[in-house]
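User: I need a structural model of AraC family transcriptional regulator from Arenibacter aquaticus for a docking pre-check later this week. Nothing fancy, just the predicted structure tokens so I can convert them on my end. Input:
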Amino acid sequence: MKSAIRKFPIPNTKCLKVKQLVEPHFDPTWHFHPEFQLACVFQGTGTRYVGDDISQFDSDDMVLTGANLPHVWRSDDKYFENKGLSTKVIVTYFSPDFMGDIFLNKDEMARIKQLLISADRGIEIVGNTKKKIRKIVQKMYRQEGFEEVLSLLHILHILSTSNDLRMINKQGYVNRVSDSDSTRMQLVHNYILNHYKTEIRLEEIAKLANMAPNSFSRYFKSRTNKSFTDFIAELRISMACKLLKSNNQSVIQIAYECGYKTLSNFNKKFKEITGTTPKMYRKNYLQIL
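Assistant: Understood. Predicted structure tokens for AraC family transcriptional regulator:
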């Protein structure tokens, strides 16, 4: 099996790499790499998978991921349907050791060191901090050499002293994914994303992974920190939350759209995951606007 994807590896002679990607849709490949990554979305909507978390993202999403933390920003279906839409993201990759252990262990770097440790769980940046970082990233994309490095250090300093950070994965999250899992988990992830609206049988996806159903169940849970059925349920409810906020479809229409055959099952699972009912979720969202 192929090893972890290194989409834009940092040259050995450089500290970091900044890429601006403008495409019809984001790369839908579930992957991980040894570099830290700061992803700043400027155009596009969809579903974001970081570690064992499933969340919706929009055109101002910003996330810092640690080394080898699995992730994918999956664009909404409309971006794959050739409707003239496009996505834009600026991604900054930097090596875990670009500052060197001696420098990173100095007192002045304590906050940044803790930030990088926390990035193993994935960090979502929000609020005023996100606004500041977006401006710096847009400028950094056009910079070169030492100015580029200074901008990265500035970003890390701002993040290390900010309260506008949300840990994406829970305390105690353990990343058990290795290079040998790369191809198998990509196949599984892509299959789930393409078929979550219909019934997904354990036997079918286990066969895709070339494993017996029981073996696959254990394998999947060890790699995603949740059962196969829980993963499917969280994905479907995440999609339902997005639809409840973005259109006027009835609750029952949304339930069917997200793969539920009965409204009662949908309501039960929705409340189990979100703590509220679909109708109340929509009502609360509209009150915030």
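Before docking, keep this in mind: The domain at 196-288 is CATH 1.10.10.60 (Arc Repressor Mutant, subunit A).
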